[in-house]
Design goal:
It is a single chain. Helix content is 35%, strand content 12%. By secondary structure, the chain is an alpha/beta fold. Strands 1, 2, 3, 4, 5, 6, 7, 8, 9 and 10 form a ten-stranded parallel beta sheet that branches. The two termini are 41 Å apart.
């Protein structure tokens, strides 16, 4: 397809595609899906090889949020039967973080429900960051605490935070349809606060809320302009008891097209497969690894995720490798330093080297189970 060839060439040059090209990715047919994935995969591999960064969420404070975000199970008035608790103590949060690090996570994301932190909350989170760094000095810590006031980003940076997450979620024109207690501009301002303090900005979107293709392109183009280092792509989890509980309008194929469009628009940033992947991609999750270079390991804020071991097996089986703590995630031109082979073709460097195929030692003999049901037994068959 001429469209895909053009998008690959632009992605390798870090050139922004046109809106029409981005929209066209979302309207490709299911028959063309593998071609779309293969094309976006070329861009992904150019900037990130076959590495997959693992991230781990720690929900510091769950539920009872005063904001009315329609997609959120923790929202004001939510009837979703989620866990509700106040702030974890620093040692409790550190213990939870250690479990993720032991599973291979390179970044720990500390999240708290609420409009934004008080100064006391910032102190509390700062102590938690210190406790985590004391146990795991090399782990990256990202805070996600809502809207930031003047000076709070600087305090988090001084406490050892590496990044700050605040998603745009949807297009500016439709933002008021999902949230009324704060504005799209508030979110943009918080991302800029984080960037101004020297924190790595993490900002993404939620797909599947009933938005149009144009809305998806609008928010991804807005993210490209805002230029975060990391763009998490969430797929709506329609919790019972929330206003969007009936929004079951994503298919695995559409989810993959959305991820491909994000990769073409944001070729050299950390595109992270986030909440809802198990719900909407299901058995197609391995294909998404050709589009994203980062995933969440284990559970999310208020929903359970795929078993961590299953994630690691999926990465290995798809021919990818977990990114180590000694490897820089971002290409060198983004200011994060350069690992052994993260060159930019625009700067005349060679493409990222890909790892050698897995050794035969990875054969999974434990997957063979002797049949004990069906024909020849008194038990019903597996059918």
């Amino acid at each position: 397809m001429d469209l895909l060839n053009t998008l690959v060439e632009k992605g390798l040059r870090r050139e922004l595609p046109s809106r029409e090209e981005a929209l066209a990715v979302l309207t490709t047919s299911d028959d063309e899906l593998l071609e779309v994935v293969a094309a976006a995969g070329k861009v992904r591999r150019q900037w990130f090889g076959r590495r997959v960064k693992l991230n781990y969420l720690v929900n510091l404070k769950s539920g009872l949020c005063p904001e009315d975000c329609s997609y959120c199970s923790q929202r004001l008035g939510s009837k979703a039967e989620i866990l509700k608790y106040t702030w974890l103590k620093p040692d409790e949060a550190s213990k939870a973080a250690a479990a993720g690090v032991a599973g291979g996570a390179k970044r720990v994301c500390l999240v708290a429900s609420g409009r934004g932190p008080t100064d006391r909350d910032v102190d509390r989170v700062s102590q938690t960051i210190g406790a985590i760094k004391e146990q795991n000095a090399d782990v990256e810590v990202c805070a996600c605490l809502g809207l930031l006031s003047d000076g709070q980003a600087e305090r988090l940076k001084a406490a050892g935070a590496d990044a700050y997450n605040h998603n745009l979620n949807t297009s500016e024109s439709t933002y008021g349809d999902i949230t009324t207690t704060h504005t799209y501009a508030d979110r943009v301002e918080t991302v800029r606060h984080a960037q101004g303090a020297g924190l790595s900005a993490c900002s993404g979107l939620i797909a599947g809320m009933g938005e149009s293709d144009a809305d998806l392109v609008d928010v991804v183009f807005a993210l490209r302009e805002l230029d975060p280092d990391s763009v998490p792509v969430n797929f709506l989890i329609p919790f019972e008891g929330t206003p969007l509980a009936e929004e079951w309008n994503l298919t695995p194929q559409r989810a993959l097209r959305i991820l491909a469009m994000v990769r073409f628009v944001c070729p050299d940033v950390e595109v992270r497969l986030a909440g809802g992947r198990e719900v909407h991609l299901r058995t197609m999750q391995p294909l998404a690894l050709h589009l994203v270079n980062s995933i969440f390991l284990g559970d999310y804020l208020t929903s359970e995720g795929q078993e961590g071991k299953a994630d690691l097996d999926m990465i290995a089986d798809a021919g990818f490798e977990v990114e180590g703590a000694d490897t820089t995630t971002l290409p060198g031109h983004r200011g994060g330093g350069c690992a052994s082979a993260c060159g930019s073709p625009a700067d005349g460097a060679e493409p990222v080297a890909e790892p050698a195929p897995a050794e035969a030692a990875s054969v999974r003999t434990d997957l063979v189970t002797v049949r004990r049901r069906g024909a020849g037994t008194d038990l019903a068959p597996n059918a």
